[in-house]
Amino acid sequence: SPYILSVVVAYLRSLLGMQILPHKILQCFVFDICMYFGQEHTLQQLLHYHVLLDSPELVTRLEEVATTRDSSWAVQACLDMALRIEELSVVAGMLLHTRQYLDIVPFLVNQRETRFKLRDLLAQIESDETAREEDPELLEHVVSEIRAWHAEA
User: Is the pLDDT at 153 greater than 80, yes or no?
Assistant: First the structure.
């Protein structure tokens, strides 16, 4: 791996070894240089072993990697971190990205999440011909879930 990455990761580990929490800017820098130098495996390890700590800034970066690179490890890491830090609209966004349409409204209802834009869900279902061919009642089913949620509220 590139020298700068090795040095920064060693610094990060020494801070954590002394029980000093690294600043979010440093953690974001490590994330960004891992991506810049194509060191996704290193990044996965840093996230898995919590060398990079959960934060809204890192979950946003993971969400971008998951959606722009269609990376399955990033989708899972993003879902895990977003659930831990309760960034529930990010979780719903990842469910949308992975086309788990039928899971989104029940998730939003259970978590009482209101920041997620339902129009994004409906628009993606409408434009996803494959999903509609597999389940012709998909859009109607999701709309009925939304109506039931609205009636309960």
Answer: no
